[in-house]
Design brief:
about 270 residues, six-stranded antiparallel beta sheet, three-stranded antiparallel beta sheet, 9 helices, 9 strands, about 35% helix
Length: about 270
């Protein structure tokens, strides 16, 4: 590695560690003061910061949930599941749903994500997933892994009920604090059952289960994995960053776009 390349590497690592990942305490305080229920908001933020995840049972109101489910069914109507009974919907589909578009910039949810970063946030990616029962495990996102080196927050909402015996996500709390600076390949982000078991013994294990309308927020650097055993599971997913790894300008439903505030538009870069 040349001297110039080495300097560049040091600069990038310094930026990620001390600028991108470090929250602004004043920004956080201002966010708290803006909330109706300061204690509840602070508690939710502390849960996410301390343990790497937050569950909000039945967060989405039923009327909104039904609209989201209807839109989701329309989006997948002419699509086919793959050989593993899995259907992945790419980005740019928010244009088809007012309710999903509005959820992507939900004031309370995005305030929690802003607090976690301690700075402005942007929607980096969004997608929907529908999965049927599939017996084979241990591939892709269905093995223990983390998603990235630096912070990235994922929000997903259950569009179907997911029980303990369903296709839930498992997550090991507090593992978002583990440094992944040496992870340079796909294989480096994967953990064996033995490695995961050691961490589970230390930190415990949580299952992302709940009724349709339940929302989960978590740092994707937490060790987690999916589960393909059980009834059909539908989810819609939003990924947020504080400016890194953006996937292009987000296109949203025209009706929703007309209602967005300046701050919400900035999150979507629309």
């Amino acid at each position: 590695m040349s001297f110039i390349s080495l300097l560049g590497k040091i600069y990038r690592e310094t930026y990620v560690k001390y600028v991108y990942n470090k929250p602004n305490s004043s920004y956080r305080k201002n966010l708290v003061y803006m909330q109706r229920d300061l204690q509840q908001f602070q508690g939710h933020c502390d849960q996410l910061c301390d343990y790497g995840y937050l569950a909000l049972p039945n967060y989405v109101e039923n009327s909104v949930l039904q609209s989201m489910k209807k839109d989701f069914e329309a989006i997948i109507a002419n699509r086919e599941y793959d050989e593993r009974n899995f259907l992945s919907l790419g980005g740019h589909l928010l244009v088809k749903s007012y309710s999903l578009s509005m959820l992507s910039v939900d004031p309370y949810l995005t305030s929690i994500v802003k607090y976690y970063y301690g700075k402005k946030i942007y929607l980096a990616q969004n997608s929907g997933y529908s999965s049927l029962n599939f017996e084979s495990q241990g591939y892709g996102a269905f093995q223990w892994h983390h998603d990235a080196k630096g912070k990235q927050v994922k929000i997903f909402v259950l569009l179907t009920d997911v029980g303990e015996n369903g296709q839930h996500t498992d997550l090991i709390p507090e593992t978002h604090k583990i440094s992944h600076s040496d992870a340079t390949t796909y294989e480096d982000t994967r953990y064996s059952e033995t490695e995961a078991s050691t961490l589970i013994d230390k930190y415990g294990l949580v299952h992302f289960t709940g009724k349709a309308g339940t929302v989960f927020i978590f740092d994707t650097n937490s060790l987690h994995r999916g589960n393909r055993n059980g009834p059909r599971r539908d989810v819609w997913v939003f990924n947020y960053t504080a400016g890194r790894s953006l996937m292009g300008e987000t296109q949203v439903n025209k009706e929703a776009l007309e209602e967005l505030t300046i701050e919400q538009r900035s999150i979507l870069r629309s």
